[in-house]
Design goal:
- The radius of gyration is 21 Å and the shape is globular.
- The protein has 13 helices and 15 strands.
- The longest helix has 23 residues.
- A ten-stranded mixed sheet has the order 5-14-13-12-11-10-9-7-6-8, with helices on one face. A three-stranded antiparallel sheet has the order 1-2-3, with helices on one face. The chain has a two-stranded parallel sheet with strand order 4-15.
- Helices cover 41% and strands 18% of the residues.
- It folds into two domains: 123 residues, Enolase-like, domain 1 (2-Layer Sandwich); 272 residues, Enolase-like C-terminal domain (TIM Barrel, Alpha-Beta Barrel).
- It has 430 residues and is of the alpha/beta class.
- The two termini are 23 Å apart.
Length: 430
């Protein structure tokens, strides 16, 4: 049954941290479908910009929806079950037209919010679960479905963000249970060692210890993992994007860490354009037969097609993080993921710095067979709703008798885990 957009409205809402968020409500003959997306201001030249009216309100976005996008989108009569890529292309062309004034003038929050709402409506029209609808649109291999390893961000210290990853879990349910239990053990360890003040948390739910050196922070994590009974089953990840250390200090820290702890992933180990340092770490990784060999080095800002080509040519990383606040449409998310997969890179699906209670990225991670996902600590509503959605998807797939596996220690290469499968390459998304 063909389903068209009959109305499209936008409303200002609150994000998880009290900042502005945009709710898109899309009506069709089959029902009403929504999305809720936060605002992300950015100074990064490689990431699309967004309108937020000084980050306090969304008057420009609301105006764009009501006066520009909605009338034109309804007039086009797109078939929601078939035309997601066409809708995304239409939004991009509109943004770059005289109506939109300049490229992305409409703002990524409107475009991505509409793209997500359209995908939910399209899935319903096609009679498919959202993750399966997205899988077909990407497109990605199906057999088997791969449930992603959750990287729970649990500790912030000295500019470094630490996560725990239950790579030794047998399935999605066990993985989330292991992460939640270890998080509680870490809370107890921090309170016992440093007092109740040490259990204050950041906006992502991780414990904030600004003055704790990196080795002590990792020791606390290792202690919590041991107390929970998961030594050897939980690996660690580090995000150094906020670290203020100079490059030689960072290199010394990374070498020190790798020899002592089970690190599986490094995000943004150096500033985005300091590629000589990235190349140094990757060359070290290539020579090592020990701790560095299987570490994923993730560049979180290598998003543009040409920039990804340059990153590959220089050999600066072997993974990329995808966060929806960095893209204007889902088609560009698919294109970027497929480009990364074609390079044999890992694709790390991540929440945004400013989040909402929308669970969409859980479906996206399963659809793309990304193998790993980061969406905060196992606490706070905006995080828990995504973990609960992963559990729901796991149960749905089991009940449907489809094949499903947990990515485990092979999380970086999960996309290619299909017999005779080929990684689809769709560089431009349309």
């Amino acid at each position: 049954m063909v389903s068209y957009i009959t109305s499209l409205t936008a409303s200002q809402r609150l994000g998880a941290s009290g900042g502005p968020a945009l709710e898109i409500k899309l009506s069709t003959s089959n029902g009403i479908y929504t999305s809720l997306i936060s605002i992300r201001g950015t100074g990064n030249e490689h990431v699309v910009h967004s309108f937020s009216d000084n980050q306090e309100h969304l008057s420009q976005a609301l105006h764009n929806i009501d006066n520009v996008i909605a009338p034109l989108l309804i007039k086009e009569k797109f078939d929601l079950g078939q035309d997601l890529n066409k809708i995304d292309r239409f939004l991009k062309e509109l943004a770059a037209s005289e109506t939109g004034a300049s490229s992305y003038r409409l703002g990524h929050q409107e475009m991505m919010g509409i793209s997500i709402a359209c995908s939910r409506a399209g899935a319903a029209c096609a009679g498919l679960p959202l993750y399966e609808f997205l899988r077909q649109k990407a497109p990605a291999a199906k057999a088997p479905y791969i449930m992603p390893v959750p990287f729970f961000t649990v500790l912030d210290s000295d500019g470094l963000e630490y996560s725990i990853a239950p790579v030794g879990a047998s399935n999605m349910t066990d993985a989330i249970r292991m992460g939640s239990e270890t998080y509680r053990c870490l809370r107890e360890a921090l309170e016992e060692k440093l007092g109740a003040a040490a259990t204050h948390t950041t906006s992502s739910g991780s414990f904030s210890l600004p003055l704790i050196p990196h080795l002590e922070a990792l020791h606390l994590l290792a202690t919590a993992i041991h107390t929970a009974g998961y030594t050897g089953k939980i690996s660690m990840g580090i995000n150094a994007a906020s670290a203020t250390l100079n490059t030689p200090e960072k290199l010394n820290i990374y070498h020190d860490i790798m020899t002592k702890y089970p690190i599986a992933l490094l995000e943004d180990p150096f500033p985005e354009d300091e590629w000589q340092s990235w190349m140094h770490v990757m060359s070290e990784k290539g020579r090592e037969e020990g701790a560095w060999k299987y570490v994923e080095i993730v560049d979180c800002e290598t998003m543009a097609h040409k920039r990804m080509q340059e990153a590959r040519a220089k050999g600066v990383c072997n993974g990329i993080r995808i966060s929806l606040d960095q893209f204007p449409t889902l088609s560009e998310v698919f294109a970027t993921a497929n480009q990364a997969f074609s390079y044999d890179w890992g694709v790390f699906i991540s929440h945004s710095h400013l989040e909402t209670n929308d669970s969409f990225i859980a479906d996206l991670a399963v659809a793309l067979r990304s193998g790993h996902i980061k969406t905060g600590a196992p606490t706070r509503g905006e995080n828990v709703v995504k973990y609960n959605r992963l559990l729901e998807i796991f149960d749905e797939i089991k009940d449907s008798r489809e094949d499903v596996e947990f990515a485990g220690s092979q999380f970086r290469t999960a996309n290619g885990r299909v017999e005779g499968g080929k990684i689809p390459l769709n560089l431009y998304g349309y």
